Amino acid sequence: MPMNIAIDGPVGAGKSSIADLVAERLHILHLDTGAMYRAVALDVLRSGIDPRDGEAVAGVCEEADVRVRYENGAQRTLLGDEDVTGLIRTKEVSAAASHVSKWPAVRRRMVRAQRELAKTADMLIDGRDIGTNVLVDAPVKIYLTATPEERARRRYMQQMEKGDTTPYEQVLSALNERDSQDMNRETDPLRQAEDAVLVDSTRMTPEQVVDAIVAIVEEVYGK
Ligand code: DC
Q1: Residue 97: CB within 6 Å of ligand 1?
Q2: pLDDT digits (tens, 9 = 90+) for 156-175
Q3: pTM assigned to the model
Q4: Is residue 129 in contact with ligand 1, taking CB distance under 6 Å?
Q5: 126: Cβ below 6 Å to ligand 1?
Q6: How many Å apart are CA 168 and CA 99, to the nearest integer?
Q7: Whose alpha carbon is nearest atom 15 of ligand 1?
Q8: pLDDT digits (tens, 9 = 90+) for 66-77
Q9: Is the CB of 51 under 6 A from ligand 1?
Q10: Distance (Å, rounded) from C-alpha 101 to C-alpha 193?
Q11: Dist. CA 160 → ligand 1 center (Å)
């Protein structure tokens, strides 16, 4: 059985970057499942469909050929043969992904694909419903979070570095809106699995978070 580590948590908890670092330390792959929902969202936007229109979204999703492959250990996300890894990081796609991911037809397809991928290699898988739904039997489950204010502050700093001057208050309200959508949707809402270990990174450096997660993994799998 491959090693499977589930990491769930809200927007801006640093899941993706922390997961990259932990995967590197453990010499395993990192599957970013959010990227798969983002790829569907990109396809939906390109089709000119409203991400809130569940039926139309389900139609696009049925045809969407979302693939994941690894290049030098790094995930590339594809729509058919097109590498969309860079194109799915815009604000438009983020907002659309939050809507698209609430539709059961979309979730069914993505969850099935994620379970298949998890069987193929030792992987750390990050998302919203990995510990509660995709891999309920994962031997290690982490729920990584921080206060909304701290997550918004980190996101704000990242955006500033990229030259985006969106005010902090706006970043915080967009984050609260996505949290609320992810936590209150009917299908597979974001929540901490009962057997997940809570890691609150509000007052931790990225290095401390990585060390804490690696220690949890080593307790279960050994060094
Ligand atoms: O982690 P992210 O921001 O890249 O995720 C994009 C969207 O996809 C986010 O709104 C929540 C959703 N998502 C999900 O519903 N289930 C997952 N396993 C991963 C992401």
Answers
A1: yes
A2: 999 999 999 999 999 999 99
A3: 0.94
A4: yes
A5: no
A6: 23
A7: 101
A8: 999 999 999 999
A9: no
A10: 19
A11: 23
